[in-house]
Amino acid sequence: MRKLSLFILSLLTTLCVVASHLRLQPQQLAVPAVHDSVTTDTTTTKQTAATPRTADAKPRVPKDEAAATDTAHRDSVRVDTVKTKPGIDSPVEYQAADSMVYDAASGLAYLYGKAQVNYQNMQLTAAKISMNMDSSMVHAEARADSTVEGGLDGRPQYTQGTDQYDSERMSFNFKTKKGYILNVNTKQGDGFMTSERSKRAADGTLYLEKGRYTTCDAKHPHFYLALSRAKVRPGKDVVFGPAHLVVEDVPLPLAIPYGFFPFNKKYSSGFVMPSYGDETSRGFYLRDGGYYWAINDYMDLKALGEIYTKGSWGLSAETNYNKRYRFRGNFYFSYLRTVEGEKNMPDYAVTKSLKLQWTHTKDSKAMPNTTFSARVNFASENYERKNLESMYNPLSYTQSTRASSVSFGHTFTNIGLSISASANLTQNMRDSTIALTLPDVSISLARFYPFRRKHQAGKERWYEKISMSYTGQMSNSITTKENLLFKSNLIKDWRNGMQHRVPIDATFQLFKYINISPSFSFRDIMYASRINRSWNTLLQQEVCDTTYGFYNLYDWNVGVTANATLYGFYKPWKKLFGGKIVAIRHVFKPAVTFSYAPDFTASRYGYRKEYERIDASGNSTMVAYSPYSNGIYGYPSGSKQGLISMSVSNNLEMKVRSDRDSTGYRKISLIDELSASLSYNMAASRQPWSNLSTRLRLKLGKNKTFSMAAVFATYAYKFNENGQVVTSDRTEWSYGRFGRFQGMSQNLSYTLNNQTWNKLMDFLHGRRKADNSAKDNTADADADDVEDANVDPDLKTARKGGRKPKNKAKVDADGYLTFSMPWSLTLSYGITMAEDRSRQINVRRMRYPFSFTQTLNASGYLRIAEGWNISFSSGYDFEMHKLSMTTMSLSRDLHCFEMSANVVLKPYSSFNFTFRARASELADALKWEKRSSYSTNVEWY
Question: Which run of H or of E encompasses 78?
């Protein structure tokens, strides 16, 4: 009996030691005495190195057995202490969906079915995991299953932070953080890495053997780089040895001895690899290579260069800056030195050109009363002709004008004063003419009421309605050639001056319905020079003499306006128009204005002068001129005016009942505006009537408006004593004819696509669909951007480097795939109608025939199949009877590759073909480009 007790005590002591390994209380284990292993249900247990194993609960024994128990306990502790190695730093949590088995003899714990082990920020999952409790070793492997794809279920997956590895078999040491992996799969950046055998170092570096790298996300990649050996630094880069390209499992004879791919997503500096190619006139080249410098969190700098074997070279620098809630912008500078022809030959030429761009935007939240913006786009005359990229960009290549501006403004809200300054530059790329204004400063004072009481009591008095404001402007400008700009003289060549305007007005009501608005306007102009002209009889030419000083000019006018708004309503007869029309409203706005201005051409003002011109025959004529005709603000040149202006404006709307509107009614605009204006000058000695101006505007949709303006001449043509056609003093009305039509100009455009075509067909067949106002608004908003409206949305997504969404295929009622071919076609037609005075006049009607100037443009896209996109743009010149700028492009989405071909057909010819990988890591390495040379652009076919 005593021996049996000692045996039981020894067994309990052994169980305590086992429990200390698993950090379980002995009473939690139900272990048959005849087994050598421990099996439990699904649980989560922890092993903590900080707690000594001898601190576990000990079984209570009688005093007479204490000696034997202590001896056994001491022996077990001594033996355990000898085998123990330095422990791990944190608890290890593990669990399994099926079962956990602990083998006391080997010290291994086996986890079956969705096994998971967690340690610090590391996690390991697999179908089967075995753990060595002493050495912190973990072995994970998949389970063979023929029912799943690949024949393996529960492949080991290791995750640490953002690093994740999927493999077939894995061994890992939690303490040293090293591992050995078979058939590993991991994602690095936009690429995927696989290898047959790999080792993981303590810092996370992977050493691969017989690896593969691809950016194709298909289960069976369409291509990959076969790597003999590679070193992967997660999140940083991959460095590999000999490698070759494999496409559709076919090895290609394209190999490299070594290489690397950067994966760093952080903002960091680095070299920019150049692109290579050849160009007929300039030779072989390396382009767009240089260095990217991440200066700080707010600014960067990219310096690139290009060099050609025949002597041409170029440099460019671009910087982006962004201060959140303050400002952001971009600065770009490029310099090209182009060498053409052979040295010491007649066609040898060296051209220097540059380009400067700057955009700056200030956040409205920072200093709300201050604004600063910049839109600078300057390029020398021949830059776009020498830049290789512009040859394949029709918009840049054919651009005729460029505009730049830099502006600053500040408002003093407490006094209503605003100050703004700007610099403006306009370039004509055809003849290198530039117009520069530097600076252009303006000061304006908001409208204020000088006679209004600070503390009003009672009714407002009439003089308290008088208001005034102030606007001042100072400008300095020049128009010259770009090569003469820095050689110009600020005083002699630049035009400058100051201008002040002070308007005073008020508004009163007469008979409650008529608004009376008297006004007075004063303008003052200041110049620093003027030009006096005279005639040199000996040389028979005009002589100009510029004098410098302070010269002040002014003009003024007074006027009074009376206007009213009248409303008329008409309820249609229900038997004739039905019951849907509720009412028709007519808004009529007549206005009459009288204005007076003195004759500022009189000699007492000195704004106009005369000199006597005597020709070689002795004939004398008086030539009128103004010494201030070259002034930047002109000069007061108006003759005496007593002008009566009359205008009318009409608006017509209809209110109808509607079931689709929440109010039950809907307003329809019949005529948005129909207006006409005419004036009579009582001070004019001849032709006092002005021309009749008319305007029509119709609303055709939510965002579609049709506008047209026309002018009708009042006075008729006649033949003078020399048989020439001149304008007489008789009106067309006196001949019983309406005013002579002067012409008009109109542009019409419309976009047809799948949606608009279906709507048109539904309308023609009388079918009605649900009102999708949200979709309509989106479509209308997109249609405003002409370029985007004519580009396939999937193509736009691909250009930005994104993947098009994988939508479920649409099927019809019979289960067949619905036919779909998205397309878009935008037609734009413009017409200008004007009198053609170069042709013979119609003597009977005394009217010139009209000439028409027409333009027709078409653009659009067509997706002929999934991944195939065709876009085009063209036009027709009716005057030259030939096509205008015509371009066409074809693109193909090849999943992990993309192919594009761009062709310019008119007015010059060029082509550009590109085949490249879509991922940014391989876009510059796996590509093939073919371009036409600019020297062969005329006829490359």
Answer: helix 66-83
What is the distance, to the nearest Å, from the Cα of residue 339 to the centroid of all Cα atoms in its chain?
Answer: 35
DSSP 689: B
Residue with tokens 């015509």: 886
Q: Residue 617 phi/psi, 5° resolution?
A: -85, -5
Amino acid at 425: L
Find the length of the chain: 941
- Kindly report the backbone phi and psi dihedral angles of residue 831, in degrees, each rounded to the nearest multiple of 5, phi listed first: -140, 135
Cβ atoms of 467 and 506 within 8 Å: the answer is yes
Buried/exposed 749-772: b ≥16 CB within 10 Å, e otherwise: eebebeeeeeeeeeeeeeeeeeee
Q: Assess contact for 380 and 356: CB atoms under 8 A.
A: no
- Distance in angstroms (rounded) separating the CA atoms of residues 271 and 277: 19
Does residue 96 sit in helix, strand or coil? Answer: coil
CB-based burial of residue 613 (10 Å sphere; 0-12 exposed, 13-18 middle, 19+ buried)?
A: middle
Beta-bridge partners for 180: 171, 199
The answer to whether the beta carbons of residues 821 and 863 sit under 8 Å apart is yes
Could you tell me the sign of the dihedral formed by the alpha carbons of 484, 487, 490, 492, in that order? negative
Rounded to whole angstroms, the Cα distance separating 788 from 796 reads 8
pTM for the structure as a whole: 0.63
Backbone angles phi, psi at 922, to 5 degrees: -110, 0
DSSP 3-state of 838: coil
Residue 771 half-sphere exposure toward CB, CA atoms < 13 A = 6
Cβ(728)–Cβ(716) under 8 Å?
yes
Region of 637 (left: φ > 0; alpha: ψ -120 to 50; beta: rest) is alpha
Tens digit of pLDDT for each residue in 153-164? Answer: 888 888 887 778
Helix (H) or strand (E) holding 796: helix 793-799
Q: What is the C-alpha separation between 941 and 936, in angstroms, rounded? A: 9
User: 3-state class of 745 per DSSP?
Assistant: strand
Rounded to whole angstroms, how far apart are CA atoms 605 and 624? 14
SS3 state of residue 349: strand
**Tens of pLDDT along 218-234?**
888 888 889 999 998 88
Q: Phi-psi region for residue 183, left (φ > 0), alpha (ψ -120 to 50) or beta?
A: left
CA separation for the pair 134, 613 (Å, rounded)? 117
User: What residue type is 666 in one-letter code?
Assistant: R
- Residue 29 makes CB contacts below 8 A (sequence gap 6+) with 15, 18, 19, 38, 40
Residue 264: pLDDT band with limits 50, 70, 90: low
Show the tokens assigned to 196. Answer: 């047959």
Instruction: Write the CA distances from 906 to 54, 441, 670, 874, 911, integer angstroms.
Output: 91, 44, 43, 9, 12
Residue 927 to residue 209: CA distance in whole angstroms: 27
Beta pairing partners, 351? 338
Identify the residue whose tokens are 């096994």: 115
CB proximity list for 84: less than 8 A, separation 6 or greater: 53, 134
Provide the 10 A C-beta neighbour count for residue 254: 12
Q: If you count DSSP H runs as helices and E runs as strands, how many of each does the chain have, helices first?
A: 9, 55
* Helix ranges (DSSP H) in 692-743: none
Per-residue pLDDT tens for 909-927? 778 888 888 887 777 778 8
What does the pLDDT look like over 281-303, one tens digit per residue? Answer: 788 888 889 999 999 989 999 99
Q: Is the peptide bond before 439 cis (omega within 30 degrees of 0)?
A: yes
Placement of tokens 């496409």 in the chain: 247
129 exposure class (CB count in 10 Å sphere: 0-12, 13-18, 19+):
buried
- Provide DSSP, 508-556: EEETTTEEEEEEEEEEEEEEEEEEEEEEETTTTEEEEEEEEEEEEEEEE
703 Cβ contact partners less than 8 Å away, ≥ 6 residues apart: 780, 781, 783, 784
Phi first, then psi, for residue 438 (nearest 5°) are: -150, 110
